[in-house]
């Protein structure tokens, strides 16, 4: 998995800080998570092959998380897109996008498929051989979901030296990659573990923004490899969290610690602070493996 | 008048080219004309004191002319705006903006006043001591208006040396600036022209984008000081104009020539061309005073 941050600052877009949007690449999938104003420019800036995006996940309908979506949908049309585009987001998103397109008499010439969300329990949104995507219900001022991306185990890797030595026929390779034993001409079997290497361990990524401190998400994000958790404020502004339903860096770190995640990426910073390093310092008092999101930064998971 | 181009390229926003938006400053007014995605970032980049904007004019509801509006309206709220904001644009704009705000539970805490347009004749939108603003009905794929800004004559300027020499009392100054003669203590009158200088000649600016070649606008824009006219294409692509209802640089120049305007500013360039200088070269074959709009460029009118 490779995560690229297109924008990770709260509130309004500014010259050098963009509102929330991320790209997650998992084998043959390229997912877009949130789409603040300017996302399509960020996609170009960081040379993401964005025609490959087939699924867009929108956490909630505050402008800094979705005002870039109508423009991106229009741009796909101008670029001659033909493939389906799936949009997952809160109920109302279809009406909003449809109205904006209708006003401009700008229907898409590709299938635009909305999956509107309103459940307050975790839901499976998407599943195939490679990945599953579930919602993570969050606690914000409006209906909001995070998203949990869980990679499925890849096929086992053939040990070419071993299959050659045992003269295993190519017709068996797919079965062996999927766990079968090798069959010799004389009827003997060779154990699968002697013909294959372990595949890479499947990875998982949880995106949680925007949200107040919310322990009910812990079972869902337990032991994920990487957790992106918003940290709009520092503890010095924790009073603002109650009113705005945001979290502090320390609270994000507490969630990471209690969920026993591999590492924590912080983001959605208020621009009131002089340096985002302050968020890292505060979080590391609670949890050791903290990274700072920043616009244009990529993470290998 | 001072015109600042925030964006002047057609279709999609890119890293270095922005969709349509302009700021027009006329004495105490700061008008925003169109508001493509990213306009609020451009306003910051070019250090426009955008809290001073009270009137926003939207030509039509294609994304590249208004997808930045919901974000700008939200940002005004986050910045604590209290003053009225007037939005002039095609019918439907109120429903669109209202729906987007409602979905995010993000009502403005300042008065947001929509003036929806649907007339196909020119209308007076705004008038005060300084300025009048009229629509210029255009010919595009959807209902579209350009906007005509006409400055009113400023008060005459006092000739301080003359009023001092004649010992004119200060109480008369306002009347004299408005054209009255001066009255001496002995009852004699001093002619107004002997006490004042001429004020600057009132200026006018016409914004015409997006539109096909359309001679019906000529009476409205006749002899304006500056005409901004779209030139999406060059003559080599004139066939595309019919389908898309855009204009070529040559057509823009023909309109400028027939309307006897002072100068022509070209913009709304398709990004298919290597250099925007090509637009100027083509237009100058028809009309001599041609300027090229570009993002961040300012023009004194």
TrEMBL record, chains A, B:
Binds 2 Zn(2+) ions. Its cofactor is Zn(2+). Zn(2+) 2 binds at residues 64-65, 210, 268. Its EC number is 3.1.26.11. The active site is at residue 64. Homodimer. This is Ribonuclease Z.
């Amino acid at each position: 998995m490779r995560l690229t941050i297109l924008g990770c600052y709260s509130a309004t877009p500014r010259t050098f800080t963009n509102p929330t949007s991320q790209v997650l690449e998992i084998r043959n999938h390229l997912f877009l998570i949130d789409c603040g104003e300017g996302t399509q420019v960020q996609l170009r800036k960081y040379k993401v092959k964005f025609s490959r995006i087939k699924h867009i996940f929108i956490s909630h309908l505050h402008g800094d998380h979705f005002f870039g979506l109508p423009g991106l949908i229009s741009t796909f049309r101008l670029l001659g897109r033909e493939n389906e585009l799936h949009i997952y987001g809160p109920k109302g998103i279809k009406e909003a996008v449809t109205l904006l397109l209708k006003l401009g008499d700008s229907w898409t010439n590709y299938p635009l498929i909305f999956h509107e969300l309103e459940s307050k329990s975790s839901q499976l949104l998407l599943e195939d051989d490679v990945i599953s995507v579930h919602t993570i219900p969050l606690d914000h001022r409006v209906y909001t979901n995070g998203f949990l991306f869980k990679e499925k185990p890849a096929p086992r890797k053939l040990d070419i030296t071993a299959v050659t030595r045992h003269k295993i026929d190519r017709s068996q390779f797919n079965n062996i990659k999927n766990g079968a034993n090798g069959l010799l001409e004389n009827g003997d079997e060779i154990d699968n573990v002697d013909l294959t290497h372990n595949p890479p361990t499947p990875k998982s990524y949880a995106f949680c923004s925007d949200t107040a401190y919310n322990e009910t998400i812990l079972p869902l994000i337990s032991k994920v490899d990487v957790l992106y958790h918003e940290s709009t404020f520092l503890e010095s502004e924790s009073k603002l969290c109650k009113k705005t339903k945001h979290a502090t860096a320390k609270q994000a770190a507490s969630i990471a610690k209690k969920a026993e995640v591999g590492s924590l990426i912080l983001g959605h910073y208020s621009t009131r602070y002089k340096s985002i390093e302050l968020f890292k310092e505060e979080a590391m008092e609670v949890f050791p493996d903290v990274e700072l999101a920043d616009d244009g930064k990529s993470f290998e998971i």
